């Protein structure tokens, strides 16, 4: 697959070259026309991070539709807002964590039925998947594929809702319960929770997952919260980020918005500390582009991904006056 000026080309050739089997030529879904602004690599084989779009919302029960359009829209907005043209040359914007130095490749969009095969291939090749959803139920097959490779994982789950229903299964409200065989609840955390149902509260208590609500973070402060979160986590960390974890004042284009949520700076600080010692994957879910306001939710989703990727490999240094963004110039 070649990327020229943000355009993806020769997807069919890349696909057959990578998987090397005629029967697998339908593994990759629709061809994408743009890539995330953070992508800087033309080769899957050379990549450390692989971006995958999952354009599916078939297991969502939300009245607010449109998450299936998010992968391509997040890519489009990412390039519109964070790629500048200087003297005819593309100049990517940096993140607060600096310039992403890892090699990042955009695979394109994959269908739900091919998740297990594609992600198993990515995991086995030692690469880190960055997923663009789609409804949050898509996290379940990704974690199942990941769990088979790594064993029980430490899940960091950003969301307004626990998604811990057990009376109804295989939808966006049962993600945690459906993933229980593949995660370690004792070393997993939920961040941003503020709209649980009674059944979910009971399951949280039963299985012992630690919850950090926006109110908890405000009351105890960011430093104490960071220490508490990092202390809970194990070695194999996976981050799942539902954009409704962010307050709708900052992220209105989501499928189930809930007031009194996280602010973007708090979320990015938590993300950067969670991932600084490494992750095995991340997803960004539940963006509804048609319900967005001036693309602010899509842009924030892309920025949070950029902050995450830039933080995984960097050696943190304390620099005065917020100059951390230039430490890798």
Could you walk me through the main structural features you see in this protein, from its secondary elements to its overall organization?
With 329 residues, the chain is an alpha/beta fold. The protein has a single domain (2-326), classed as Ureohydrolase domain (Arginase, Chain A, 3-Layer(aba) Sandwich), CATH 3.40.800.10. Helix content is 33%, strand content 16%. The chain contains ten helices and twelve strands. It has helices spanning 11-19, 70-82, 115-124, 139-150, 175-179, 198-207, 214-220, 222-232, 264-275, 296-313; strands spanning 2-4, 7-9, 49-54, 83-86, 89-92, 104-109, 128-133, 154-158, 189-191, 210-212, 237-242, 281-285. The protein has an eight-stranded parallel beta sheet, sandwiched between helices. The chain has a two-stranded antiparallel ribbon with strand order 1-2. Helix 9 (264-275) packs parallel to helix 10 (296-313). The radius of gyration is 19 Å and the shape is globular. It starts with a strand and ends in a 16-residue tail after the last helix. The relative contact order is 0.16.
Question: What are the salient characteristics of this protein?
Answer:
329 residues, alpha/beta, Arginase, Chain A, eight-stranded parallel beta sheet, 33% helix, globular, disordered N terminus, disordered C terminus
